[in-house]
Write a structure and sequence with these properties.
The protein has 409 residues and is mainly alpha-helical. The protein contains 15 helices and no strands.
Length: 409
């Protein structure tokens, strides 16, 4: 009963705060889509797709590793551990920015698009100081929710005040950066032992951190490739207009997947404890959660498919009707993605994430291949089909591995 109460508390804290934050963010996105038009909207979303890879390079799975260690390792000295991990993340962020600069110089894109891309890259500076993984580990999810709401409120307010026409597109990434600063600062000063956190560069521990999180990081990189590769390919092979249409469809899907991710985050500390105490309890726990998500997810998909046109027009206006079919296809990924997140959490808790890499790699390879084959001819519909097929393959393979491990011993 205590476990169920803890899960409900964690989920409620994340759900209320993060849904409010995501709602505010979606209002800002819808506003930007209308004001900037599909071309400007496509430009900022292409830059965000590149930023997603940069964020992975800054963490390499260290955030998930950090949460697991804080939640399950009772012998750990939290403040020293956090300070050392933050110092490592700062180093990775600086290296990532150098890599971004080289990439921007190498690609053939207009100067404005390159400027927008680099401006979005600056987001990693406040991102590395984001302590959400710490609060998740100590199961104080309410702070994560409050920080997210404050951040999205700041973003929405500044967007509405400052973004008035397509010519203001260059200001958007700087407003995104400002909102990230608000979020990170709130969590830093909310941590109960903030004064005890000291930056310390301890290279032997860094090596251990990277070694322990390497398989998580590689898995995250592969998943990020197939999650954002379609947008990157559309950005290079098609126009900003098509990137904008695809982004409009995918943003709604990501909003709904995020709700499932909040639930997954709220049960991850419990999964981590069960992984140490009893695989049988963990297996039963996972089966109950997958069943619950499956039933609700299928019902949600039916509703989204039927009312797709009305949802797109209501959110973005008539100019985005071209994204309806892609939205209907992508809506299949909602329940699949949430189930995948739970299976990944099981593998992380069991410290067996490397067991799934071959499956993730195969799914990623198929997704990339399908994008190359389908996007030139079918555009955003081809990208949506490639995403669904890749998601099904990866979730199936990860699920089979997780369930096999739970049945052993």
């Amino acid at each position: 009963m205590a476990v169920r109460t803890t899960i409900l508390k964690n989920f409620a804290s994340l759900f209320v705060g993060q849904v409010a934050a995501r709602g505010l963010n979606f209002v800002a996105i819808a506003y930007l889509a209308r004001v900037l038009g599909s071309d400007g909207f496509g430009m900022i979303n292409f830059a965000q797709a590149i930023l997603a890879y940069l964020m992975v390079a800054c963490t390499l799975g260290l955030d998930v590793f950090g949460t697991r260690e804080i939640a399950a390792n009772h012998k750990i000295k939290k403040e020293s551990f956090i300070g050392n991990l933050l110092a490592l993340r700062v180093g990775l962020a600086l290296l990532s920015l150098v890599g971004l600069g080289i990439f921007i110089l190498a690609i053939n894109k207009p100067a404005l698009e390159k400027e927008v891309m680099f401006a979005y890259g600056l987001y990693v500076l406040p991102f590395v100081f984001y302590l959400g993984w710490v609060f998740c580990g100590i199961e104080r999810m309410e702070y994560i929710g409050i920080a997210a709401v404050l951040s999205r409120l700041a973003f929405l307010a500044t967007v509405v005040v400052l973004i008035k026409d397509p010519g203001n597109v260059i200001f958007v990434p700087y407003l995104w950066f400002t909102a990230a600063v608000v979020e990170s600062l709130f969590l830093i000063f909310s941590y109960p032992k903030f004064g005890g956190i000291k930056f310390n560069v301890h290279l032997p521990e860094w090596k251990l951190f990277i070694k322990d999180s390497a398989w998580i990081g590689l898995s995250v990189i592969l998943i990020q490739i197939y999650s954002s590769f379609n947008l990157v390919m559309l950005g290079f092979m098609k126009t900003n207009h098509e990137v904008g249409l695809y982004s409009a469809a995918s943003k709604i899907i990501l909003f709904m997947v995020a709700i499932g991710a909040f639930y997954n985050n709220s049960i991850f500390p419990v999964i981590s404890r069960y992984a140490q105490d009893s695989k049988l309890k963990l297996k039963r726990f996972i089966h109950r959660n997958i069943s619950f998500i499956g039933v609700g997810g299928v019902a949600l998909w039916i509703l989204l498919f039927i009312f797709a046109r009305q949802i797109i027009v209501l959110a973005y206006g008539d100019d985005y009707r071209g994204s309806v079919l892609a939205f209907q296809i992508l809506s299949l990924t909602i329940v699949i993605s949430i189930v995948r997140l739970i299976y990944v959490s099981v593998l992380v808790a069991l410290n067996k994430i490397k067991e799934s890499l071959w499956g993730v790699g195969i799914g990623c390879g198929i997704n990339v291949t399908l994008n190359f084959l389908l996007i030139p001819r079918y555009g955003i519909v081809g990208a949506a089909i490639a995403t669904v097929i890749g998601e099904i393959i990866i979730t199936t393979m990860i699920g089979r591995i997780a369930l096999r491990l739970l049945s052993e011993g």
